[in-house]
Fold Cytochrome c oxidase subunit 7C, mitochondrial.
Amino acid sequence: MLGVVTRSNLLGRNVMKTFIRNGSHGGVPGENLPFDIHNRHKLTLLFTVFIGSGLGAPFLITRHQLLKK
């Protein structure tokens, strides 16, 4: 039983070493995000639009339904 645990642990370490060695930048903050986090003002604007559209959509849909003839 202990041999199986040791082998799987070694396999996990080897996979991560290979992954980091073959193109991942490993440990760079924001490297794996689909948006740029270095421009604070742009990030704040995009975050506000993203969250605001999700929170405001039900109210806009309700308004549209109530104004229909």
Residues 53 and 60 are 10 Å apart (CA to CA). The longest helix spans residues 40-67. The two ends are 71 Å apart (CA to CA).
